[in-house]
Amino acid sequence: MQVLLNQQRGALFGIDARLMLAIFSGLTVVAGASVGGILSSSKVTGLSKDINTYRNAVESIQHDLGNNIHSITSSSASKNFIALFELDNTYLDTPRQKKWLGPYIEPHNIDSGKAQHRFFGDIGLIFKEHDGATNCVTTNRNPCFYWLTITDVPLAITEKYNEQVDGTETTAKSSGVIQWSGTGPTILSVRLTSAIKR
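-> structure tokens emitted (198 positions)
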């Protein structure tokens, strides 16, 4: 009889162990999904704060230079962004260097001449009209705006940020303040602020 009870306890313990393993497996899946959602929300919040910082930096450097950043020598999207934190005649022409009172943002890592976002890819500042589709040749013809571009932003992050800024009713990726291209990692474009007229 004692042997039989011992065997039954072992069998019950085996069932209990399998049940506990199944419960812990389920909890692990739920916890993993929750942590993934928290990390995603954290990156959206971080992206939003970064973009506000970039907007303030662009407004400040324009005020100090008395002109838009695209008046610098050898202008490019990468150089325009780097000019926010690095004073160099590669990025700013000599007359502008006397007016530069930066750095306007914390230095970023630079890879192959392009500033890198802390979470995603390359960052640049481009010069376009309000719709984000038309390049600005001169600020005298139409109001021009600075558009910030960031590469390698996951689509889920882009869509959540778009929802925060443009709202759920604006889901078109080619209209609004937030625009993007691509369906894997996206190239995110954000209209920051208007450019000073020359």
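The mean pLDDT is 80.
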